Amino acid sequence: MSRPLRLLAVHAHPDDESSKGAASMAFYVARGERVRVVSCTGGERGDVLNPRLVDDPDVLRDLPAFRRREMARAQEILGIEHTWLGFVDSGLPEGDPLPPLPDGCFALEPLDVTTEALVRVIREFRPHVVTTYDENGGYPHPDHIMCHVVSLAAFRAAGDPEAFPHAGEPWQPLKLYYNQTLSAARVRAFHEELTDRGLESPFASWMERWKDRVDRTTTTRVPAGEYFETRNRALLAHATQIDPDGAWFGIPLEVERDVWPTEDFEAACSYVPIVEGENDLFGGLGDGQQADALAARALAGELDIVYDEIKEA
Ligand SMILES: [Zn+2]
């Protein structure tokens, strides 16, 4: 029995893990690797997006508890491990001018406090690969931007024995990726395919909203199509956050597997080369034992970063 590889996916809110990269996580779990999700916040300020639950007494009484149960269910469906980082949702500010962020929220916490919390998880779980959001957060929610900032800071600090000396034994992850599952190119491809087939596309309004969205560089396409159904079940477990009749489920699975059978990622930083046409987040790392040896060399300063496309937020 070979030693598993370890993937840590850092997300802002419970439900983000199920909409961004969930099929890939199920794919790696099925392959025998270890996958852990970190939710930076409890999603306390999320709107209830499911019309069937808007007036639900349990939701009204205690949304955070409800969302913890939803997350536990999604975790079970995906077969992953899960850690709450313990910070409070910043909410999505709306209005003109935008209101200030609420006191004590994740986006306003001092960076060394949030970074130390994530460094602690990295040093304990010892991931070979970490995923997070790009410098735009994927979409401009303050918690998503902060998730990027904190992930970067923790990726850099986790292997530094002088950084956060009370947060565990140093560990250097080898690769950092950004989720690019929700790319404009993918939404466009679905919109065109559905329209061609004479089916109604739920993405017309997205196309309009995203017409100026810049396509990101996709470096890595994980062939996770077999796990799209698992991803949908995990998404539906976040019942307050998902309208089961909404756009998420507007694409028949066979169309999705036909048109876009992968989940896509953008390499941000790596101690091993990112090869053209990469289809595995663990590419270049070998098996778990070899990846552990590489991480030990990176920690000892014997390996250099050979790929760095990080743009600061
Ligand atoms: Zn979110």
TrEMBL record:
Keywords: Hydrolase, Metal-binding, Zinc. Binds 1 zinc ion per subunit. It catalyses: mycothiol S-conjugate + H2O = an N-acetyl-L-cysteine-S-conjugate + 1D-myo-inositol 2-amino-2-deoxy-alpha-D-glucopyranoside. Zn(2+) binds at residues 13, 16, 144. It comes from the Bacteria. GO terms for molecular function: hydrolase activity, acting on carbon-nitrogen (but not peptide) bonds, in linear amides; zinc ion binding. It is an enzyme of class 3 (hydrolase). Its cofactor is Zn(2+). Monomer. Belongs to the MshB deacetylase family. Mca subfamily. PANTHER family: N-ACETYLGLUCOSAMINYL-PHOSPHATIDYLINOSITOL DE-N-ACETYLASE (PTHR12993:SF11), N-ACETYLGLUCOSAMINYL-PHOSPHATIDYLINOSITOL DE-N-ACETYLASE-RELATED (PTHR12993). A mycothiol (MSH, N-acetylcysteinyl-glucosaminyl-inositol) S-conjugate amidase, it recycles conjugated MSH to the N-acetyl cysteine conjugate (AcCys S-conjugate, a mercapturic acid) and the MSH precursor. Involved in MSH-dependent detoxification of a number of alkylating agents and antibiotics. This is Mycothiol S-conjugate amidase. It comes from Kineosphaera limosa NBRC 100340.
